[in-house]
Description:
Blueprint: E1 4-9, E2 21-28, H1 39-45, E3 60-68, E4 74-79, E5 83-86, E6 89-92, H2 93-101, E7 106-115, E8 122-130
Antiparallel strand pairs: 1-2, 2-3, 3-4, 5-6, 7-8
Amino acid sequence: CDGEELLVLDEGLRPVRPGEAGDLYLRGVGLSPGYWGDPEKTRAAFPRRPGSADPGDRIYKTGDVAKVGDDGLVYFLGRADAQVKSRGYRIELGEIETALNALPGVGECAVVAVPTDGFEGAVLCCAYVPAPESDGSPLGGSWTGFPGTPTARSTGAR
Length: 158
């Protein structure tokens, strides 16, 4: 589109050579002013365009990893973080882990996305180690999972 630009940059915000992986940035007239009410996150995601003296000439770090091919096209390689897409929703796996780790019966947990060939995108899977003082369930008591979802029972092994 006119007025829009894709940039593939290294950690120092310098363009990478064709074929090298780098962070994908967007620049242009349609760029958002930033994250509502979150100036710290805005500063991190919307740095000033390298080489520009204009403080309003910003770029947006998408969180995607890309490369520029010998043909000049930009190729998407994946995510730089743990964000996944499932059923059309963008999901931060780290946020799920943080919420689960806050439960009284959870000692440690991990959440992963398992790709599927179906329309739903990735299926999210969670595993946890019960807290030492817990009965094995994340909430304590007789919690067995969410209604209508399969639940793997704890074997009691620690």
